[in-house]
Input
Amino acid sequence: MKTILLFSLLWLFITTSINAQEIINKDAEIAKMVSEISAENIEANVRKLVTFGTRHTLSDTKSNDTGVGAARRWVKSQFDLYAKESGGRFTSEIDEYTIEADGRRIPEEALSANVVGVLKGTNPDDDRVFLITGHLDSRATDVMDKEIDAPGANDDGSGVAVVMELARIMSKRAFPSTIIFMAVTGEEQGLYGAGYMADKLLADSTNLVAVINNDMVGNSTSSGTNLLDNTQVRVFSEGVPAFETEEMERMRRYTSAENDSKSRQLARYIKEVGERYVDQLEVKLVYRNDRFLRGGDHTPFAKKGFTAVRMCEMNENYYHQHQTVRKEDGIQYGDLPEFMDFEYARKNAGVNLATLANLAWAPASPENVGVDVSGLSNSTRLVWDDPQIGEKPKGYYVLMRETYQPLWEKKFYVEGNEAVLPYSKDNYFFAVQAVDAEGHESLAVFPVPKR
Output
């Protein structure tokens, strides 16, 4: 009897373990690109950026050795090297703009610039654009001191180095849609470079689908609490959109969609795809636009109505952030490369690359996604149209989660333009995303009521 009981328990354990197993399908080419990311390259780029002394937005622009101008030209020169292996698809420029005096951190009108690399999409019928950015400028304790050394290794040399490493690898491949790789200036003085670019893309009616801002992604040790952890990274995303019309607000309230903004869908996408391709790294979703009472270069894009999020290290070290280089009470202050974790930066770069590649190869999102509310039912009927740009999807995923859950829990694959599920819309949230034959998924679209 004991033998039978033990066998039964063993069989229950085995079958439960089998049923709990999750099959994860990876695109071999995306996995290969992620494997090509080099911690050594990221470190070399960060250390080169530090050699410019300061990259303060208002620092020297004429010198070939020091200041933000020299740093910009060096990043551009690296982009030009990547362009040689791109088959003509990758180009770059130093895009100048004027910052008006603001009476705060810009005492007088100043000329500034972003370094912009563009990997042009190969499908003329696909006008989607994806953008990854980090800020090139740095600062010391006094944000107005444009002369003192401000190495800016992690803040935000790490973000710029990640952007550069992705440009190096991805420019060798072809994507149907366009990817922009950008190093902005003006962040520490008031998000000016990002604001200029957001205005420019809006004025050009650019179909900018997603923005990923990398700001401080290379430190894994906290100050004060002395935490040491390179297995988690944060993604910040807005709930209630910074740009919201009265109609958008009405629909958000009507459908209880305060946790389903487009930026929140992008954050969930980054977590799912990033963890699919990068081992030993958990993507932690922080449900706010940025850290408490603080901001970053994704914010100007969000304010213009674009889908934008911020990636940032889990544990910040305030001894090495916004600090003049000095030693005080036995503590070394200053944003120096020796306090960075370049293996951690490599993993964070992998999350960015996997997300961008998966999005750029995926079909466009379905259009006119709706939930049928023509009658009361304990089932839910969802309908949608095929995307009007790019390749037609092979099929669609209908996503579902309980209302209290932060992440999508189930995916139902369907072909066609509707799905009826035996789950009540009173108890679950739903969304729809397009998918191609290779498994690349679009961003999810939250449905609106349809009669």
Remarks:
- The first helix runs from residue 2 to 20.
- The mean pLDDT is 95.
